[in-house]
UniProtKB/TrEMBL annotation:
Coiled coil: none annotated. This is Polysaccharide biosynthesis C-terminal domain-containing protein. InterPro entries: Poly_Biosynth_Transport, Polysacc_synth. It is a multi-pass membrane protein. It comes from Phocaeicola barnesiae. Keywords: Cell membrane, Membrane, Transmembrane, Transmembrane helix. GO terms for cellular component: plasma membrane. The chain crosses the membrane at residues 12-29, 49-71, 83-108, 120-143, 155-176, 191-211, 231-250, 270-293, 314-334, 346-366, 378-397, 403-425, 437-455, 461-479. It is found in: Cell membrane.
Length: 496
């Protein structure tokens, strides 16, 4: 139980930074949808470019985050030597990437169908190179169990990015109208999408300053034998990482190519991406859990077999994922105001996207069997299968059914690889997951969600009250069934 308390504490800290950070980033969604109307396709451009950068980020980190945790926790390996080798490898790869891409910038921009905006591509090349290198110091902070600094840097970056977006997208247009002489030397009112990338580049560069202490205090020497072992371990992780991120972004990359009219594809993509942001509460929880869980699992594995603890962690993750689903769907009458009204037609995908995120989180929990047994090739197989399913369904169904088909394709892809990972994992590294308890929670959440949808309440306030009661029923069941309330006397008395 002490181990779970430690995991819960770190998850809470990472989670607060993730939740607060994502919430602050959510503030950009109404801003973007207000200044970039759905019909313009501007938000579709942003989503399309960031989809490519997400894929490149995975390539440049090369699976070395997980490789670092694995080798830093292995007996006989010096964690600082492991860290130094990872830093030099990822840093060198990132520099080579920047040099190559900037050399062939215009052909790359033309291939991506942004021939008139090679500047967008150039900025995001620099951003993704900086971010990939910074992933390693962030991993080092997690290894050192320093979630406060980790969270502080993340939040600083997010707040700074928001302020720069507000400056470029709100303040500058206002100043350009009332006092153009102050800013016309650097501001172009037609460059709105570009300023989103400018803000990101500025903050990625500034963030490097915070890692100066993490870049000193050890020897920068390549250990060929160690690095070769780490590359061999991390390469399969890179492959399934690339395919895994394709699972999340391939629809956003191919959308403009699935429609005869590229502009229509960007419009559809903008609506889909904006409304999907409402579902990212689930992604926040999964990410926070991952930040704490990865070093936790590898550290516990060094101490011995802890399969019972892994099973409990899965159960609690699943329970709170369902709670997050009920909260988001229960308060959709409020959350829909995160996006401008001309994007509301896409809100039908939120529940579907959240279901995909639940599968993704379960799959992440299951994935540790092949990481702990050093059979990481299985992750590559699963990710490839999931990618094929998602890509095929998108190409087949999106031209007919639009973005709703993309959402269901994600559910299908993650659902398939979750089942594959579970059944194969039970043969390779059996863990006694509490499936019956989890099934009861799933059934309860399903019934409560159905009641929320089917009970005819047309008044918004009354509907919100009904959903609040339903959510409290679910929370009450958690408190009664699974939370260790004996250590919290006040709550313990309340549920008696």
């Amino acid at each position: 139980m002490a181990g779970l308390k430690s995991l819960a504490k770190d998850t809470a800290i990472y989670g607060m930074s993730s939740i607060i950070g994502r919430f602050l980033n959510y503030l950009l969604v109404p801003l973007y949808t207000a200044v970039l109307p759905a019909a313009s396709g501007g938000y579709g451009v942003v989503s399309n470019v960031y989809a490519y950068t997400a894929l490149i980020l995975v390539f440049l980190t090369f699976g070395m985050e997980t490789g670092f945790f694995r080798f830093a926790n292995k007996a006989g390996d010096d964690p600082k030597k492991v860290y130094a080798n990872v830093l030099m490898f990822v840093g060198g790869l990132s520099l080579a990437f920047v040099a190559l891409c900037l050399t062939f910038l215009h052909p790359i921009a033309s291939f991506l169908e942004y021939p008139d905006h090679a500047d967008y591509v150039a900025m995001m090349i620099l951003v993704v190179a900086l971010d990939s290198f910074q992933c390693i110091p962030f991993a080092y902070l997690r290894y050192q169990k320093r979630p406060i600094k980790f969270a502080g840097i993340k939040l600083f970056n997010i707040v700074g990015n928001i302020l720069l977006n507000l400056f470029f997208l709100l303040l500058c247009p206002w100043l350009y109208k009332v006092q153009p002489g102050l800013i016309d030397w650097f501001y172009d009112p037609d460059y709105l999408v570009g300023y989103i990338f400018v803000a990101n580049l500025i903050m990625s560069a500034v963030q490097m300053l915070f890692f100066i202490p993490e870049l000193r205090g050890f020897s920068y020497r390549i250990d060929r034998k160690l690095l070769k072992e780490m590359i061999a371990y991390s390469f399969p992780i890179l492959i399934f990482g690339l395919v895994g991120i394709l699972n999340q972004t391939v629809d956003k990359m191919i959308y403009p190519f699935l429609f005869e009219d590229r502009q229509e594809g960007l419009v559809q993509l903008g609506i889909y991406s904006a409304t999907s942001k409402v579902a990212l509460v689930m992604a926040m929880f999964t990410q926070a859990f991952r930040y704490a869980y990865e070093p936790f699992v590898f550290g516990k594995n060094r101490e011995g077999d802890n399969r019972d603890m892994y099973a409990k962690a899965m159960k609690y993750f699943f329970i709170f994922s369902l709670l997050a689903f009920l909260v988001v769907m229960g308060y959709m009458d409020i959350l829909r105001y995160m996006v401008a009204r001309d994007y509301w037609e896409g809100l039908s995908v939120v529940a579907i996207v959240m279901l995909a995120e639940i599968f993704k989180g379960i799959y992440f929990n299951l994935s540790f069997w092949y990481k702990l047994t050093d059979e990481t090739q299985w992750g590559a197989y699963f990710s490839l299968i999931g990618c094929v399913v998602i890509l095929a369904l998108n190409v087949w169904l999106v031209p007919t059914y639009g973005y709703v088909a993309s959402a269901w394709a994600s559910v299908a892809g993650y659902g398939v690889i979750t089942l594959l990972s579970y059944f194969i994992g039970q043969k390779k590294y059996p863990v006694d997951y509490p499936l019956k308890d989890m099934a009861v929670y799933l059934l309860l959440a399903g019934v409560l969600y159905a009641l929320s949808v089917w009970i005819p309440v047309h008044n918004t306030v009354l509907h919100l009250l009904l959903n609040t009661v339903l959510i409290l029923v679910f929370i009450g069941y958690i408190l009664k069934k699974d939370l260790p309330l004996k250590s919290i006397p006040i709550l313990n008395r309340l549920v008696r």
